[in-house]
Amino acid sequence: MPLFVTVTPGTTITSSTTLTPSTLNLLGTPSIDVTGSVDGGTLSVADGSLGLEKFSAIAGNRLIGNGNSVSAYPAVLSSTDLTFTSTTVNVGTGVITEPKLAARAATFAKIQAISTGKLLGRTTASSGDIEELTVGSGLTLSGGTLTNGLLRYTTTAKDLPAIGDASQAVQWLTTATELPATTGSVLPQLVRVVLRCKTNDGPFVAGNELDIHSVINEQTWSSGNLTSEYPITVSIGTVVSSTTNLFLNVWFSKARPGNRVFLNGGDADSQLVYLDSTGTRTVLTRANWQVKAYLLYASTWA
After folding, report:
1. What is the domain range of residue 13?
2. What pTM, to 2 d.p., does this model score?
3. pLDDT of amino acid 1
């Protein structure tokens, strides 16, 4: 690199002169360009020889680095998300917002801990923070499953027996896997039995349901005068020799229930009769209807 010196009078420089610090001091005030060369040689800066104070001053709250995607000279970088002190750099308060998070980036483990046996939700009016919810009475939270302790069960629909059938019972038994097992000897406290329309019948269409208590078995004289009527009976209990299996029976009526016969003329077979809210009497066609039941119970009702 070029070396420019001011020679002090009386100082002799020859080709053999060694430029030691003391010799350079004799030369006055030398000026050295560290980017150049000396007689074809080179000048290097030793590692760690320059302190930070030797660099140019930069603006406050800045970093030195390379923000390019390729190799480049260091540059002064700024940030809107970092907080600076004289000795530290931290992530700023409130700068990690939803747009800065990738989808599903926050795991359950990153959410604050909650108490055992609680649910997460919100009951306070208006939108706001998630709250801990208490599992209410009749509900159980165990093993990751929330249950209400109630058994809801719907039986399969079964055809009604024909009037001439010897047996007028429609039966469901757990021994035939048609009803759920109970806990101990607890029986369903709520049992609703219905007739379900299978094929359109008069004012009813397929899918319509009639509560069993709104329908009766009826026997009439051929003249149309009522002689007898019988409710449709429902019975439920546990299977014989069992404390856990249920049975459910629905009893209809055969022809001439009780063998009652009108001596002065023939009588009609036992028929299903529905009386609607207007008082209109409708005879149902047995073959167009099925019977089914809905059960509801909980062990806490025992």
Report:
1. 1-44
2. 0.54
3. 41
